[in-house]
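Predict both folds.
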Amino acid sequence: MKRLLLLTLLLATLLAPAQPRYSNPVLHQDFSDPDVCRVGEDYYMTASSFNCFPGLPVLHSRDLVHWEQIGAALTDYPGPGWNAPEDDFHGRVQHGNGVWAPSIRYHDGWFYIFCSDPDRGIFMVRTQDPAGTWEAPVWVVKAKGYIDPCPLWDDDGKAWLSHALAGSRAGLKSVLYIAPMAADGTHLTGPSRIVYDGHRTQPTIEGTKLYKRDGRYYLFAPAGGVATGWQTVLRADEIFGPWEERVVMAWAPGTINGPHQGGWVETPSGDSWFVHFQDKGAYGRIVHLQPMRWQEDGWPLIGEDPDGDGVGQPVVSWKSPVPDRKATSASRLNAYGTGMEWQYPAVPSPTWHATLPDGSVRLYSVPQDTPEANLWNCLNLLLRKFPAERFTVTARLRFHPNPQLPGKGEQAGFIVMGNDYATLRLTDTGTGARLQYAVCQQASKGSAETVTDLAVLPYHATPHTLPYASGNVPPVAYPDWQEALMWVKLEVTPRKVEGNVPDAVCRFSYSTEGKRFSPAGGPFTASPETWIGAKFGFYCNRPAPRNDAGWVDVEQLQIN
């Protein structure tokens, strides 16, 4: 009888469906410094957005593997009342500044995001609907150099805020702070105190995430630098320490570089997981998911530990946290009326674009009052993160230069933007649209473009008349709007280089009828921008202010 029972159990085990697995990265997109929280059976993530708007993206998942962006918590950037006009995010591209390393928490019916601006201090936004509108930012503390904040509401009702320092602003780094905070999260109730100094053993420690478990306090914080560092955890019996330290995950041969900043989250069943990023050069800081377990000695271990040394290493694949709970994706628009994935490098003006009934986007030409050698500081680049290691983008562009400005140099373009950039663009000549391919190396240093002329596209007239209601008055004829039609294509492929971070090689091509594409120049190797990965997108400019604008319609956009 026992043999029969054992045989039955063995057969049941062999015939049972295998638990599904996931592969890293779970998001091959630039969501730097991710943090997560769980509410019921739903998970929410936010990430750094730096100078890009809308800022503070909000993502949702049902299984920690499949993520959908459902909103953004920051659509404007009011200063704390003491920033200089030249630091405004409305009229100047603030490369690498702005929104650094947020944390997201759910407390007492509210979602909170605490975030740092390295030049202004720490602010907080909150909402009761993470897919809806978030309240205006509250500046919790004004202090240059404070970064990477995380709140903790303690068991006794007290609230705390941890943070780090940016050496570039504060003149000191590798130290971690904790401060008492008001229970509503709006202000500190006492000064920040250094609770840990990592100069000797944990250089460049930062990215604090503050937790409490089984009566102990834990600070999760990466150290060693973004591209080559490791995950450290500190623990203490009292909030101000003393704090013990342990490295809990590190880059091992054959695994991902970094791994860097992230957050711990538990499933409803009590399993622990860690979400973090990997710096992948031009592809940005992409998101990985690691299994995590608490050991008998009260320390966590992240990833797997094949050599048994007590320090985890990142996994390539693992059993899925919550099988068969993938959320259904929905098409959503952000607060500016474009798809959730699109951002500008500054707070946009409502004059820059319109979303058309068929879902395409019309970009109006924006005056460039201070023409520069390149597009590095162009405010109105509508851009999107690289979505994968290998992908193709195609779109149709309908360029309508203003007929009242013939030959004045109005432009429409398709671009891959980073510290270097490449662009296919159309320039109005008055009698046609000159198609050019331009490359700018070291755009961030003011370098000039290298430009190649490819073709001159003829205009097709698109006349319009406005009939009056009365038959006694003839229709008024308006100037014909000329149209140049072009299809663009971008193919991005990885190229293996020394190390484990591949180059992103971009190839542009174009077509005048949407079928046969001609190459535009040679391969272009994308580069990251300041703290963010390369992006692709569109723009429409004119060289001087006028009382009206031409435009380009971006249609039939496909990303494969």
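Second protein follows, with its predicted structure tokens after the sequence.
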Amino acid sequence: MNKDIVELQEDVSNSSLYSADLAPVPPSKRTWTKWDLAAIWVGMAVCIPTYLLASYMIKTGLSWVEALLIIGIANLIITIPMVLNGHAGVKYGIPFPVIGRASFGTKGIHIPSVIRGIVACGWFGINTWLGGLAIYSIFIAISGNDAAVGLSVGQFVSFGIFWFINIFFIWKGTESIKWLEDYVAPILIIMGLILIGWGYSNAGGFGIVLAQSKQLEKPVAEIYTKDNQSFINIYPIVDKEGNSKAKAYQLSFNGTASGWQTLNTNPIAIDNLKDGDIYQIQLKNDKYTSSKVAVSLNKSDSSVGSKIWLYLIWLTAMLGFWATMSLSIADITRYAASQKAQVKGQFIGLPGTMMLYSFVGIFVTFAAIINFDDILIANDAPWDPIALIAKFDNVWVVVIAQIFMIIATLSTNIAANVIAPANAFSNLFPKKISFRMGGVITGIIGILIFPWLLLNEIQGLLIDVSAVLGPVLAILVCDYYLIRKKEILLADLYKTNGLYSFGGSGFNKAAIISLIIGAFIAIGGKWIPMMRFLYAISWFSGFIISFALYYFLMRKQIKTA
């Protein structure tokens, strides 16, 4: 028998905490190799949110190199606890909600596992909506109709179709998920390379494409003051020769638009600027008109401290991207054949894929702003790949590309946003809620959170998630490695009156206290100015505080026991 694997030796099937879905996976069914696990990560990491990640950073003034480095460093950092937390999944063959009973208690684990589950439901809804938009784009391309402005019945019907496709794989079980990821991974890698090839060939070279970064780092227009006079500077998109693609501009002041003016005077003087004045600007050329955007006030701060602050904020946000998976990674590693497979598979699959597909998003968007004549301002750059693909005139290019988008979104959704909440909901009532039923509940909640309203809240959502879930990960890692020394009484995890019932209450007070204090320390800066720095690095501050506090409380508890 593999010494790295511990099997259940006692019959606990009558316990209310036991079900076939939550039971240890027997060695004969641990068939996932390092390549299966790497494929899982390729399938999860290649998604529209990954494609969009760098855009949020570049819009705040970071260069593409800075954005890519932050993404790479964050994913190397998060892979370490991912591997540490995945160890128990391999050794005992059990999912996160069952492992968590050792540290939080048989009832206490519901708090972090349901929080993790609800967050995954939110991501499930967002990705399902995006997948639905891809289906809707196929319909528009084939039918020749114009896409509706705003929300439409067609978009919601497409959302429903993609929702049912997800539910099909949920119902088929984990082996169908493994099959999906294995076949999808190479397709997704090829898709990324094709997109880079398109950008390179149409724009005229890597150097030309990457030089466009400076255009997207700037606002469309900004107000600044010099010698007691206020001015507006306009930054239209320029072509490869450096010529402005826009020919005219229109200013709106407090809701009232002026006439169109030739774009040959820059900067534009404005008189009597007062606090509360709202300026908006719109650009056009002979064929196209840009969207209308607010003119921002120049608040740029190029100091070293300001730059480091921005780096920390984005590093924390990027850690939050996979904060949920770092908790529930045992849901996947329980199927791994060995510890080596889970370690190599995760390091092969996660950091590199995240950097590759973030670069794909960067490169293709840079290429698009010079390849498409209708992009006149930075705000209209098609960072969203669905919006980009819809710009192509060839119907079959649009259809095939959107099919790739659907495949990418499906593979991410099933592996990253279904397995964990399905197990979390099943753990609430093991005898009544199966993995399948938990997956369906996930899908229903994914509808009820109205994902079409969440797409613009991603940055804040990621930071807040990392603040709450960093402490949970800290408690799990501290308990497993420092308190339990990687030794868990497997049968007791399924007993209502066993070691992990903590005296019958089902709650480990040390874990609950550590979670509450760690989460407060991390997220309190959102409302308390003196704690703002801790909020900027919420994943780190929450993790460190909860780790140290849990260790102290548990060591004290063991000594007095």
